[in-house]
């Protein structure tokens, strides 16, 4: 293993030489199949992880439930205080954890560190929330009666996270879940177990120091079977799943069939629309970041670009210049902007998507190949690509499917209404972005006939949302909301409690039932 990688791992107490335990529920263990964590930039094996065997998943589920039964009685502000300590512990490891994200997932350093920052931010949010998860007092129609709407801890929250945000998305769920008084069981992506182990180590130390059962933050590394066991477990009140539409459909149906609660964060197929009055000095770099940042592997990545005819040539020529000079390579190097795709099979999917564009006679304006440079051969590096398909019909496959790679499809429009129609015509509905300085366009865009996505930005790109607002998408993205806004309300059990303080017991609606 390279010295650089082993230094990062050792500062996070992760051994690269012995097989790591991928299960935690107060104790570390793991006797299931071994997963390898592979660096997508170099192909080197970073470490090996012993995953959860089927019986270990069940034991961990049981331990997590026990932890909940204990933890639910801890007052919310005290839970917030524990979360504050977790926040501090994460912030202290921000650089190393960020570097581990780069090593294991492949995103560039600033984005890896940014992802840890996102976890820190949501912890701050959860700390505040721990003193503000208020219920309500509702006026009763009956004299001497009051109605309380009461939020109580929900139970066990299962978090199934994806490779592309191996830290932050768990963070969104964990921080709210902990503040709400729940225990969480985390099944991370099979290709990013080290991030999950490092985060769980940091959290578990804080929990243990506070005398809280470690299984409040359980971890089961594993593959499909482990995920399925969590999804199917009747003891998991809420399943929060991030991943593909295909798997999300199975998870959603499964959880619904046992009347559990589910949060789905599935595909994104996000568009940016550039009006003729847009400030191109801001819009061009924003589209560049949206489409090339994280090598196009965010749910919120910009995949479609709708350019007004009057600015199309100018915009494309500026964007092409940025694409052609992109600093590609080692995600940990200071100036790199484009890291590798996460896996070899992602490169194949990229190749197939480019091939398909070629068969429909799309104009490949730039990119379309794997890099040939010697220092990039060991990694999964592909050129960021801009394509101008002949067809502008958003129902066509090239427009309607999410390809998790840096491929940007471009079409040219004349009227905003046309662009909004295209924006909305795909199955997915996560993020969208309009560039204009005309307030009338803004009104259309954010109004009833505007973008139907969960994120509707103006002069801000499609990706890189802050934690304060609820994050999530509509339609086939799954309608889930995580992180800020009212998302916390899903992590509690709501009850309406009608209290009678009077000497009579009248019925509602004036119903008379006198024996
Ligand atoms: C994801 O890609 O699954 O808005 C999450 C963003 C990030 C989160 C993306 N804050 O791009």
List the helices and strands and how they pair.
Elements (H helix, E strand, L loop, with lengths): L2 H9 L8 E2 L1 E2 L3 E2 L4 E5 L6 E6 L3 H18 L4 H17 L1 H12 L3 H21 L6 E4 L5 E9 L2 E5 L7 H12 L3 E5 L5 H17 L7 E4 L3 H9 L5 E5 L2 H13 L3 E5 L4 E5 L5 H13 L9 E7 H16 L19 H16 L3 E4 L18 E4 L8 H4 L6 E7 L2 H9 L3 E2 L1 E5 L3 H8 L8 E4 L11 E2 L2 E2 L6 E2 L8 E9 L15
Parallel strand pairs: 1-5, 8-9, 8-11, 9-10, 11-12, 13-14, 13-19, 14-17, 16-17, 19-20
Antiparallel strand pairs: 2-3, 2-10, 4-5, 6-7, 7-24, 15-16, 18-22, 21-23
Helix pairs in contact: 1-4, 2-8, 3-5, 3-7, 4-5, 4-7, 5-6, 10-11
Bound molecules: 2-aminohexanedioic acid.
2-aminohexanedioic acid (UN1) binds next to loops.
Protein name: aldehyde dehydrogenase (NAD(+))
Keywords: NAD, Oxidoreductase
GO molecular function, one term: aldehyde dehydrogenase (NAD+) activity
